């Protein structure tokens, strides 16, 4: 119903939801200003960025009525830094993963997003790294840069499938990049399994539907004994964890659903 008491049309609902998404992005401006203020007051760029990292994703989700119910939340802080992997279905799940990580993380995204006036700008502000998948030499150089940041204490957030997959299909093949970063930096891998992102949005859609997303954060996986020879097997094992978790969702008592 509208404020006039008349039923709201489907077009009105659609515009309102898209408007909420735009409003969520608009919140980045005041939050970014706050981050600059924190950075100046503390004389710490990282503290300023952490204010942005821990605040804006949650506000964007809350603005759109998105809540999440988390199993294994203790694994988010069990070992940091780490390479956090999430299964990628739509444009919302990166923000869910980011909201969970809070502090001291950077996002790896495909190079195409660098030219996006909104997402690209926000990723650059947050020290995001853009990976050129069509240029192997450039990709290797970028991964070396990410490894150094991880050694400096920053966790890495990345979707191992690369491009988001159809919301109704299974887990796609995992690319090697995230795993090689973990090996080079000597930090563990932490799988973030998102079960029902399709209730929030379809792939490449601006239509956002309020709802609660189920998330399972699995225990950190050490990579100390991994080698390049055994890497394909380890990648397959990690991917299988996603398939098994989605097929047989944990029965642990989840953390109460919280707004972004």
Automatic annotation (TrEMBL):
GO biological process, one term: phosphatidic acid biosynthetic process
Record-linked CDD domains: LPLAT_AGPAT-like (cd07989)
Keywords of this entry: Acyltransferase, Membrane, Transferase, Transmembrane, Transmembrane helix
Gene Ontology molecular function: any one: 1-acylglycerol-3-phosphate O-acyltransferase activity
Transmembrane intervals: 20-41
Residues of the Phospholipid/glycerol acyltransferase domain: 82-197
InterPro entries cross-referenced by the UniProt entry: Plipid/glycerol_acylTrfase
Keyword match Membrane: yes
Name of the protein in its database record: Bifunctional phospholipid biosynthesis enzyme plsC
């Amino acid at each position: 119903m509208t404020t006039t008491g008349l039923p709201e049309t489907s077009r009105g609902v659609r515009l309102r939801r898209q408007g909420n998404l735009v409003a969520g992005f608009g919140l980045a401006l005041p939050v970014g200003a706050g981050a600059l203020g924190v950075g100046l007051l503390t004389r710490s760029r990282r503290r300023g960025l952490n204010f942005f990292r821990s605040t804006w994703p949650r506000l964007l989700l809350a603005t759109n009525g998105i809540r999440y119910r988390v199993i294994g939340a203790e694994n988010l802080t069990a070992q940091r830094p780490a390479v956090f992997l999430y299964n990628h279905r739509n444009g919302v799940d990166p923000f869910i993963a980011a909201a969970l990580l809070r502090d001291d993380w950077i996002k790896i995204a495909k190079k195409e997003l660098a030219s996006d006036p909104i997402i690209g700008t926000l990723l650059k502000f947050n020290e995001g790294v853009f990976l050129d998948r069509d240029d192997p030499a450039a990709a290797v150089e970028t991964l070396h840069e990410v490894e150094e940041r991880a050694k400096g204490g920053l966790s890495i957030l990345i979707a191992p499938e690369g491009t988001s997959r159809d919301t109704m299909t299974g887990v796609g093949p995992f690319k090697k990049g995230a795993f090689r970063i973990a090996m080079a930096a000597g930090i563990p891998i932490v799988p973030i399994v998102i079960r029902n992102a399709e209730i929030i949005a379809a792939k490449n859609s601006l239509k956002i539907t309020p709802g609660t997303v189920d998330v399972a954060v699995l225990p950190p996986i050490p990579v100390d004994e991994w080698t390049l020879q055994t890497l394909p097997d380890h990648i397959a094992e990690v991917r299988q964890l996603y398939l098994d978790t989605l097929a047989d969702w944990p029965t642990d008592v989840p953390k109460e659903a919280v707004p972004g």
